[in-house]
Amino acid sequence: MKQDYTLPAQTHIGHVHLKVADLDRAMKFYCDLLGFELVTMYGMDAAFISAGGYHHHIGLNTWYSKGGTPPPAHSTGLFHTAIVYPTRKDLATILQRLRDAGYPLSGASDHGVSEALYLSDPDQNGVELYWDRPREVWPKKADGSTDIYTRPLDLQDLLQELEK
């Protein structure tokens, strides 16, 4: 096997498929709150949802998890699903929706390359909502590599985007 293989630059993650305990509850979070659209149901135990009409960005199913409980905090598994918003204003809009709904954040960070909101879905799956800054303004380390850090995100400053 060739050791120096790297993925083509156009490669991307196509979708995430999450095991949930209650499909209706998960749909309320992902569709009603976050704004994903239902593409299709797969029987009574799975739903495929997307943004912009794609066949699906997220699959939700109860095949092996109906009525189940979240995994323990200190176990292996998915850390979070990251959902990329196209603009900072779009991120501000979802922040305002979450606030209006009284939905709690577990964190908010400025990573230099991006700004991110962190929360958990009703099944305690981690969710990151973020936007990427333009690549040309990403911070760099002395050696030229990208400097990704974690600093507190100023939520009031983010919400100012809604007034522009």
Account of the protein in words:
The structure is a single chain. With 164 residues, this protein is of the alpha+beta class. It has two domains: 14-66, 2,3-Dihydroxybiphenyl 1,2-Dioxygenase, domain 1 (Roll), CATH 3.10.180.10; 79-164, Roll (2,3-Dihydroxybiphenyl 1,2-Dioxygenase, domain 1). It contains three helices and nine strands, in the order E-H-E-E-E-E-H-E-E-E-E-H. The protein has helices at 23-33, 88-101, 155-159; strands spanning 16-19, 37-41, 46-50, 58-61, 81-85, 107-110, 114-120, 126-132, 151-152. The strands form two sheets. The chain has a five-stranded mixed sheet with strand order 5-8-7-6-9. It starts with 15 loop residues before the first strand and ends in a 5-residue tail after the last helix. The mean pLDDT is 96.
